[in-house]
Design brief:
Layout (H helix, E strand, L loop, with lengths): L15 H16 L21 E11 L13 E2 L5 E7 L8 E14 L2 E7 L2 E2 L5 E2 L3 E6 L9 E3 L4 E8 L2 E14 L3
Antiparallel strand pairs: 1-11, 2-11, 3-10, 4-8, 4-9, 4-11, 5-6, 5-7, 5-10
Length: about 180
């Protein structure tokens, strides 16, 4: 709680230096506001916070790591020739909050021939279409995915992960990174 040095009562003479000291007390109190002295019910809006978003990973295993008996010689899975939805979900975004897809990370254990993934969110195809996969880590992201995310999403927007190609792959894990507003 903010306190001032001098208290005045009716009928007393006010000394200007005391008034000035009280104003100095108020300025110091305002200047020292930080997260340690805010009340829980301060009613802050996310737009008033310096860092009001969090990154939330949504992982999906699209193709198992191995259908064989050993990881040393994984058995690959044949890709469907036409784009086939292998996973579908909906996003949940809190009322009054903002969210977006910051990036999509696709980890692939093995691939041969051509294998591709298409990421569709809210009816929009990310990166303009199917992305050819290579073994290792693949990304669909802008240069600075936090400051410049891929796509804004709304509550109940659908997410579709489609695979296609003329080859095979194993161990495909997709992580959709959501940039989500902490408070509205």
């Amino acid at each position: 709680m903010t306190a001032v040095t001098f208290t005045f009562s009716a009928g007393t003479t006010i000394d200007p230096t005391e008034v000035n000291q009280n104003f100095a007390d108020l300025v110091a109190a305002v200047d020292s506001i930080d997260t340690d002295n805010l009340r829980d019910d301060a009613g802050l809006k996310s737009t008033q916070l310096a860092d009001r978003y969090s990154l939330v990973p949504m992982p999906f295993i699209l193709v198992p790591f191995d259908s064989g008996a050993t990881y040393a010689a994984p058995t690959a899975f044949t890709m469907p020739a036409a784009a086939t939805t292998v996973y579908e979900a909906v996003f949940r975004v809190g009322s009054g909050k903002r969210a977006s897809i910051a990036a999509v990370e696709i980890d692939v254990q093995t691939t041969s021939g051509t294998a591709a993934i298409t990421v569709i969110a809210g009816g929009s195809t990310l990166a303009g279409g199917a992305q050819t996969l290579v073994a290792g880590r693949n990304f669909i992201a802008n240069t600075d995915p936090v400051a410049n995310p891929q796509l804004a999403i709304a509550d109940l927007d659908a997410l579709q992960l489609q695979m296609s190609g003329a080859g095979s792959c194993s161990g495909v894990v997709v992580v959709v990174w959501l940039k989500e507003e902490l408070v509205s």
